[in-house]
Design goal:
Helix content is 45%, strand content 20%. The protein is α+β, with helices and mostly antiparallel strands and 468 residues long.
Length: 468
């Protein structure tokens, strides 16, 4: 291989002229001959048994050029990139110039990883957000636990009200004709949840169980179904049942029911501790992200659009995987969201641009500081992945390249370097609101409650304090 020319056409775009000849070219023709000779019919010989000289005379050496080029250009291209010191970020646009018995020449236009000029990344200034856990946040966790342990009870002494859970039969009509998808039986609808189009739920409020009635609803102008956009429709409704949510009182009995604790104060203390861990972790992450973003903003680079497009591809794919885990798919999501794919992808572009910029900056710091990944750390990462997916380390090695793991570890070291040299101040703590202070001073009354017959596991109810 000979690199005849290496021209920079524009930022990050290079044109290489590469020549393959001599022994490389002869070896390629030999490989092509071995692949194709057995397919040829040469009079007087069985397939694959004719002497090479006879085959060449009958079909000509140029018969084997195409496969010989395909078998040799990739290796020649890789060697040319190494010699030129280029790192491509996209497939090359290849043009074959000439092929003959002496060899061939080809042109490769390739977009390469941009040069990064680092700015300040040591001694940056950052502010760690306040991570104080407030009484209001603890109370919010308790309220969510109570809500998760609430129960629905039948209502038979009043009409439906906002917040009730109703069961309805319904059917929609457009100009007196039932339209597809507008019918439901024994459908559970929480009034005020905005699950249906505007105006639907509001008109169920005030009606009683077993009542049959009609409501008028106008579909939004941007509704996904073309035939219903902006249309006035009528729905026939039968209200089958009304239930209201009964929330348990927050007291010691509640704590016993939903946790391993005997008192509400003990449960509050546990929740406060878990909240503190989460808020500390979130504050540290926010500080870290801010410092890294500042280092990336201080760096100078021109990012090739293809790198952003590839990152958008990854983000769209991740989004689609999350939808699939919920039993949905991307085309259906886009239909109901009223979006086209180009606009959907465009929404990811700013975040993708920033992620690429940060990655390039961290890689440049790795190079500038000569950061290395310890073999023990690499092995630990392989073990972690193997444990997570229930595979052997050898299986993981076959899927994930060691270079990728090593680079991730080096980039983590770059982040640690940015953080360890930063000048960090703590954000001032928020003063409690006046109404909160008054609420703390006021005596609290306990609402009557019924003890739950079953005791929920603490891990299910208190882990992370998340809503189910």
């Amino acid at each position: 291989m000979k690199l005849l020319r290496n021209d920079k056409l524009e930022t990050n775009l290079f044109e290489l002229e590469i020549r393959v000849e001599g022994d490389e070219w002869k070896a390629g023709i030999d490989r092509s001959f071995r692949k194709n000779a057995g397919k040829l019919n040469i009079p007087g010989f069985r397939k694959g048994k004719a002497p090479r000289a006879m085959v060449m005379k009958m079909v000509g050496e140029d018969y084997f050029y195409e496969d010989a080029v395909n078998m040799t250009y990739s290796d020649a291209y890789e060697k040319a990139l190494e010699e030129a010191g280029l790192e491509p970020v996209d497939r090359a646009d290849v043009e074959l110039k000439e092929v003959n018995g002496e060899g061939y020449t080809f042109i490769a236009k390739v977009t390469c990883r941009p040069e990064v000029t680092l700015g300040q990344y040591k001694g940056l200034e950052g502010t760690r957000p306040d991570s104080t856990v407030t009484d209001e946040e603890v109370q919010g966790e308790l309220d969510r636990m109570a809500d998760r342990n609430s129960r629905l009870v039948d209502v038979d002494d009043r009409p439906a009200a906002d917040g009730d859970t109703t069961e309805i039969d319904f059917e929609g009509f457009l100009d007196g004709v039932a339209f597809p998808g507008g019918k439901g039986e024994k459908y559970t609808l929480v009034l005020g949840s905005h699950q249906f189009i505007p105006g639907f739920e509001e008109q169920i409020v005030g009606h009683s169980v077993d009542e049959e009635f009609e409501i008028g609803v106008k579909f939004p102008e941007d509704y996904h179904e073309e035939t219903l956009k902006g249309k006035d429709t009528t729905f026939k409704i039968k209200l089958l049942g009304i239930k209201k949510k009964e929330v348990p009182a927050l007291d010691d009995e509640f704590a016993k029911d939903v946790s391993e604790f005997d008192t509400l104060d003990e449960l509050k203390g546990d929740l406060r501790g878990k909240l503190q861990e989460r808020k500390d972790a979130a504050a540290d992450e926010q500080l870290e992200n801010g410092l890294v973003d500042t280092a990336a903003a201080n760096a100078t680079m021109e990012i090739p659009p293809v790198m952003v497009e590839r990152k958008v591809d990854e983000m769209v794919q991740d989004f689609e995987y999350r939808l699939q885990s919920q039993g949905l798919n991307l085309p259906t999501y886009l239909q109901y969201a009223g979006m086209e794919m180009p606009a959907f992808r465009e929404g990811f572009a700013p975040q993708a641009q920033q992620q690429v910029r940060v990655s390039l900056t961290l890689e440049a710091i790795v190079k500038a500081e000569d950061l290395q990944a310890d073999p023990e750390a690499i092995e630990a990462e392989y073990q972690k992945m193997a444990d997570a997916y229930g595979l052997t380390i050898d299986k993981v090695r076959g899927v994930v390249a060691e270079d990728n793991i090593a680079m991730n570890l080096k980039m983590n070291k770059a982040i640690d370097l940015i953080k360890s040299t930063a000048k960090v101040t703590d954000a001032p703590k928020e003063e409690p609101k006046a109404e909160e202070a008054k609420a703390e001073e006021a005596p609290k009354e306990k609402a009557p409650r019924k003890r739950r017959a079953t005791k929920a596991k603490a891990a299910e109810e208190t882990e992370g304090g998340k809503d189910e």
